[in-house]
Amino acid sequence: MEVARLISESVVCVLDADPAVRDSLASVISLDGIEVCSFATATELRAVLRLESAPEIRCILCASELPDASGLALYCRLREDGLNVPFALMVSRHAGVTRRAAEEAGVNLVLPKPLVDPENVLQFVREPVA
Q1: What are the residue ranges of helices labelled H in the chain?
Q2: In 3D, which of 58, 97, 41 has the Cα closest to residue 110?
Q3: Which of 110, 117, 129, 91 is nearest to 25 (CA)?
Q4: Tens of pLDDT along 17-31?
Q5: Fewest CB atoms within 10 Å of the CB: 23, 36, 67, 70?
Q6: Domain 3-126 sits in which CATH superfamily?
Q7: Where are the domains of the chain?
Q8: Residues 71-94, buried b or exposed e (16+ Cβ, 10 A)?
Q9: Residue 5 and residue 14: Cα distance in Å, rounded?
Q10: Mean pLDDT of 83-106
């Protein structure tokens, strides 16, 4: 968890258990001049959100499976908690059921994983729509 990088401007939160995926997405986004915070678990993100100095969240890019929760469950929980920020769920190309459930729940964007297209990611984080 990169709590030290939290600053006052809005940030993109990237959640994935795989550090290589987190680092890759964070690099693509930060090269575009957008601040990024990376997390391995839903618990880490929720802990930061409870801080008095929590950053303004621009949007969230989240893997469909995290060590402690599904990405879709995290999306639903954040909505219940009142955090209505744009949310992209990265799912396996073969996860049709997860894709449909995410779309039905209102997830803003479903991205195929692996090989998430950097241009799709940048388009989402540049102009996120809740």
Answers
A1: 19-30, 42-49, 71-80, 96-105, 118-126
A2: 97
A3: 117
A4: 999 999 999 999 999
A5: 67
A6: Response regulator (3.40.50.2300)
A7: 3-126
A8: bbebbbebeeeebebbbbbbbeee
A9: 13
A10: 85
